[in-house]
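User: Hi! I'm working on a homework problem where we have to compare a predicted structure to a textbook description. Could you give me the structure for the chain below?
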Amino acid sequence: MKLKFNVKNKAQADPFIFEDKGTFYLYVTAFEGVEAYKTEDIFGTWEYVGVVCKIDGAKNYWAPCIIKYEGKYYLYYSCQYEKDFEHMHVSSADKPLGPFENHKKLYNRFSIDPHTVETNEGLYLFYAEDNLEDERFGTRLFLDKLSDPYTPLNLKKEIVTPPLTRRYIKKTALVTAGTGILWKVLSI
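Assistant: Happy to help. Predicted structure tokens:
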């Protein structure tokens, strides 16, 4: 599916689509803050709204997701702030387009790509972290339970582990005619 937008030359990286009361919202990765679009026809033209969440002094907002919980909207995202490189944050608002305020950092470590879900057992947060020290180095997917939208219980459970060990990974550059570099990641 290809979406249509009312602006040109804007990227919509890491899109997250959310529906509320018949309106669709799209939240995307951006440098200055989390940007949003809206439409009433998911296959129609998306209207650029602008930055809906920003922390003073932060930049590089990655992979936002949103959830409506008990009548409020909670936006989860990672951003670079001071010396923290892409730490997970949450902010809240009374409307899907904000303004999002009450910013809180959830983890004191690199943590990206959130996805929050509500189940009969409560709120859960899926997210990714890098582990470059382990024999199975790389990005891993974790699950943590939230006691409320702002409070992870830090009971993280690793649910996806990189499948290969260091001895099977070999980075080899292959130059192809006119197309640049392809990376051969697996070499057994």
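For your comparison, note the following. Residues 168-179, 181-188 have pLDDT under 50 and may be disordered. The chain has one domain: 4-186. Good luck with the assignment!
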